[in-house]
UniProtKB/TrEMBL annotation:
Membrane spanning residue stretches: none
GO terms assigned for molecular function: ATP binding; corrinoid adenosyltransferase activity
Pathway: Cofactor biosynthesis; adenosylcobalamin biosynthesis; adenosylcobalamin from cob(II)yrinate a,c-diamide: step 2/7
Biased composition (Polar residues): 1-11
Catalytic reaction annotation: 2 cob(II)alamin + reduced [electron-transfer flavoprotein] + 2 ATP = 2 adenosylcob(III)alamin + 2 triphosphate + oxidized [electron-transfer flavoprotein] + 3 H(+); 2 cob(II)yrinate a,c diamide + reduced [electron-transfer flavoprotein] + 2 ATP = 2 adenosylcob(III)yrinate a,c-diamide + 2 triphosphate + oxidized [electron-transfer flavoprotein] + 3 H(+)
Entry keyword set: ATP-binding, Cobalamin biosynthesis, Nucleotide-binding, Transferase
GO biological process terms held by the UniProt record: cobalamin biosynthetic process
Coiled coil: none
Family per record: Belongs to the Cob(I)alamin adenosyltransferase family.
Protein name listed in UniProt: Corrinoid adenosyltransferase
Organism field: Rubinisphaera italica
Length: 188
């Protein structure tokens, strides 16, 4: 378990921060950018959970929040560090997301148009989380371009963005559905 006595360390006042192994890096280091995107994604999921959420999906999202912390813990230490963190996101977590996606796929009709984010608060917030998830995935790929990171983390984020899209669809309010995209030609 983590124990934090003091939140204000003042170590970041000069534009740097420390990784999990004590390595000092700039606040715009690709690893920090990725960790920041994961943190933002987790905060958006927490906001989604602040409103009414069906129990099953609440449990799924809470599990995802824990997975994102696991991924962040894995990423906070560089692969070449003397401190070695075993992969925390494995094929198990990826398969769990794929299982959930399969369950949603069976319940949802095929799409005949793109969906514009909006409608009720819960699906709109899940669409926002999806876009942040896509950024986190891109940030992780940028980091992977520079150094070794676990492939499973990248796969996990890819599946997660799909799951968040489907969760936004399944939680739509029939009285306030997300609008459909109307191409310019049709809108005229």
């Amino acid at each position: 378990m983590v124990h934090l006595d003091n939140i204000t360390t003042k170590t970041g006042d000069a534009g740097t921060t420390r990784l999990g192994d004590g390595t000092e890096v700039t606040k715009f280091d690709p690893r920090i950018e990725c960790l920041g995107s994961l943190d933002e994604l987790n905060a958006h999921l927490g906001l989604a959970l602040a409103g009414p959420v069906p129990a099953t999906y609440y449990d799924w999202i809470r599990q995802i929040q824990n997975d994102l912390f696991d991924l962040g813990a894995e990423l906070c230490v560089p692969a070449d560090s003397e401190i070695q963190i075993p992969p925390r996101i494995t094929n198990h977590q990826v398969k769990r997301l794929e299982n959930w996606l399969g369950k949603l796929h069976k319940k949802l009709p095929a799409l005949s148009s793109f969906i514009l984010p909006g409608g009720a608060p819960l699906p709109a917030s899940l669409h926002l989380a999806r876009t942040v998830c896509r950024r986190a995935e891109r940030d992780l790929w940028k980091l992977a371009d520079q150094e070794k990171v676990s492939d499973q983390g990248m796969i996990y984020l890819n599946r997660l963005s799909d799951l968040l899209f489907q969760l936004a669809r399944i939680t739509e309010d029939p009285e306030n559905p997300a609008p459909l995209w109307m191409p310019a030609k049709k809108a005229e």
